[in-house]
Every structure is written in structure tokens, then in C-alpha cells.
Design brief:
A hairpin with a 2-residue loop joins strand 8 and strand 9. The chain is elongated, with a radius of gyration of 45 Å. It is built from six helices and 14 strands. Helix content is 18%, strand content 19%. Bound molecules: zinc ion (ZN). Residues 252-253, 259, 261, 263, 342 line the site of zinc ion. Zinc ion binds at residues 252-253, 259, 261, 263, 342.
Length: 359
């Protein structure tokens, strides 16, 4: 026994460490056994069959299939076979657009996300005047704002960029132009997009009289009241007159003190055009004291022209028309026997003889 005590004394630390180790092992084993037993005791982890072979499958009611009957509204959807290409994808090439009745330049430009001038630049609209757009006109719509230009012999990027106040790099880099950047050659005849390019537009403000045309329409000799109030609008001046009809001869009454105009030959529905540029001051259906469907244009400098007995008219008050623009179609409305155009020129409120003005 003494030997044992001596041995213990000699190896005190070894013996204590072994003892502690043995205690730790027992404690760990004990807690592991306790944890396993506690876990297996939990019913949530016990796997159970949902149905035994002798049981029927649980029956669950499915959502009703929608029918087209009114009692169950459905949203019809078409089978989509194609990938939808986003419409806001940038366009690279010009496209054609045929104008519809009621189209205005502003609206067309908006539809294509362009400035109105970009459409004027790339099209030959008479006088660059959007009022001269007619339904059925085919417009070239550039892909982006700027101007389309057909490349000519001898053109250089710098020259054309300068001409249209644009940057050569913008022309080079516009992807729709397909220019090889390593060898930037453009073939004659190629239509090139000049991004941001612009050209002079015909500006008729220099031709405008400074006085407003308000209250200029009631002209005295004829007893229908002219409606010429186009507030804030002034018209171009044009003192020379062309024939408003296709035929250039008098088919009825000539200019006399009792017939203050000339009856020009016209077949029913022949186009009638403005004898001079101006502003429409009246476009009116009805009997109109015998004039029938009538258009009156203020041509500036005190001149008005009147177009009577029309079958129909295609302009509206305050519209600006250019010389030769179709304003309506010949007929025999009002006090007329047979289709013709009753045409008058008035100056400062008095009728004048059209024959004195080249007709
Ligand atoms: Zn007449």
C-alpha cells in the first residue's frame, strides 16, 4: 500500500490527467446517449406512410377549369409563338409612311419619336409647309433626328457634315450607315443618315405682312358675311393669281356689274385649287345666299378669292394654303345650274375683275 502511495506521489500529474480525461469521456458519452434518446422520442421525426396499400388515395378537389360562359369571366390569351421584339428598339434605317386622313406633321413626328423638322428635312413637301401634306402622301421617315442625304460624287464626310451642320464622327459612327471604320468610303448614291443634320427650311415669315388679318373678311359687295377671324395668324402675300380650275374658259356668266365674278368651266368633282397662296378665311357648307359650299381665301395685301358652288371642300378656316393647293371639288351647290366654278377676286372689300389679274 505504501508502494502504491509512493507511486502515486511519483506520478501525481500523470494520474490526475488520466483521471480528468476519463471523467470527460464518460460525460461526453453520457450526453450523446441522452441526445439520441431524446431525438428518437420526438414524434415529428418519425416517418409514417401516408397511405397503406389497402387505403384509397386521399381525394382532393381540383380548381374548376374556366369556361367561356359569362358566369366565369376569363381573360383570353393568344398562344405566343414568337418572341416579342421591343418596339423601342432603335431603328437604323429609314422607312416609308403613307399619311392618313387627319394626320398632322406633329402627330406623325411624335409617333416616330422624331422632331417634326426631321421629317420636313428628308421630304419634298411643297414649300416645306406641313399644311401641304395630303392623305396618301408617302413620307420618308428617318431613323433618328437629322437628315437623310444621298451621297454624290466628290462628297467627303467633312464637306457633307459642314453642309448639314453635323459632325463627321456622328455620320461615321451611326450604325445604320454601315461604314467600315477602317476604310470609311461611301459609295455614290448611298442614302446616308446625317445624325443631327439640318437644312434651311423655306420660311415664309419674310413674306408675311405685319398686320393681322383679323376682321378682314367681310367685304361688302357680297352679302354673305366673311368669317376671317384667325387670331394671331397672318397669311403669305400673293398678288398674282392662277386659274383655280383645270379648264381656262368661261362657261357661264362673265364679270359684269350684276355678276361680280367669273363662271369658270369645270366638271363635277374636278379639283379646285387656290388661285394664290393665303389663309382660308371661310370654308362653309350650305346654300350661303346662293354660293353653295364656298371657300374664301385671304391672299394678303387686301385680296380675297372666293370659290363657290363646290361639291365639297377639303380645307378649314385658318388653314394656310399654297398657290395651286387643292381646296375642294367642283359642283353645282347653291344657286347654280350645272357644275362650274363661280370665282371672285375682291380687293379691300370690293370685287375686282379677274380678267385684270391674268385670268
Ligand atoms: Zn357665277
Amino acid at each position: 500500500m505504501n508502494k502504491l502511495i509512493e507511486l502515486f506521489k511519483a506520478n501525481r500529474f500523470t494520474t490526475i490527467s488520466w483521471g480528468v480525461t476519463a471523467l470527460l469521456v464518460v460525460a461526453l458519452l453520457g450526453s450523446a446517449v441522452w441526445w439520441t434518446q431524446a431525438g428518437s422520442a420526438s414524434p415529428a421525426t418519425r416517418l409514417e406512410p401516408t397511405a397503406r396499400p389497402d387505403q384509397n388515395l386521399p381525394s382532393v378537389s381540383m380548381p374548376a377549369v374556366a369556361t367561356s360562359s359569362a358566369s366565369s369571366p376569363t381573360i383570353p390569351r393568344q398562344l405566343q409563338l414568337k418572341t416579342i421584339i421591343p418596339t423601342d428598339e432603335p431603328r437604323l434605317h429609314p422607312i416609308s409612311y403613307t399619311t392618313q386622313g387627319g394626320d398632322g406633321l406633329q402627330g406623325i413626328a411624335q409617333d416616330f419619336n422624331l422632331k417634326p423638322n426631321s421629317i420636313l428635312y428628308s421630304n419634298k413637301i411643297p414649300y416645306d409647309d406641313p399644311m401641304n401634306l395630303k392623305p396618301g402622301d408617302v413620307l420618308t421617315i428617318p431613323p433618328i433626328d437629322g437628315i437623310l442625304y444621298k451621297w454624290q460624287d466628290g462628297d467627303t464626310l467633312q464637306k457633307i457634315a459642314d453642309k448639314f451642320k453635323a459632325k463627321p464622327d456622328d455620320i461615321l459612327n451611326f450604325p445604320g450607315n454601315d461604314i467600315d471604320l477602317t476604310n470609311p468610303q461611301i459609295k455614290t448614291g448611298t442614302v446616308v443618315m446625317i445624325p443631327g443634320g439640318k437644312r434651311e427650311l423655306i420660311d415664309y415669315t419674310p413674306n408675311l405682312p405685319t398686320n393681322s388679318r383679323v376682321n378682314n373678311g367681310s367685304t361688302g359687295t357680297s352679302d354673305f358675311a366673311g368669317n376671317s377671324s384667325c387670331p394671331g395668324v397672318v397669311g403669305p402675300v400673293d398678288n398674282s393669281f392662277g386659274f383655280p380650275t383645270l379648264q381656262h374658259w368661261i362657261s357661264g356668266n362673265d364679270y359684269t356689274p350684276t355678276h361680280l365674278g367669273i363662271d369658270l368651266a369645270a366638271n363635277a368633282n374636278d379639283p379646285i385649287s387656290a388661285a394664290a397662296a393665303g389663309i382660308v378665311t371661310m370654308a362653309q357648307g350650305g346654300y350661303n345666299y346662293g354660293y353653295g359650299n364656298v371657300v374664301e381665301i385671304d391672299n394678303g395685301n387686301g385680296y380675297l378669292t372666293v370659290y363657290a358652288h363646290l361639291n365639297s371642300y377639303t380645307v378649314s378656316p385658318c388653314e394656310i394654303v399654297q398657290r395651286g393647293a387643292i381646296i375642294g371639288y367642283a359642283g353645282a351647290t347653291g344657286n347654280a345650274t350645272g357644275a362650274h366654278l363661280h370665282f371672285e377676286i375682291r380687293r379691300n372689300g370690293a370685287n375686282v375683275n379677274p380678267h385684270d389679274y391674268g385670268l
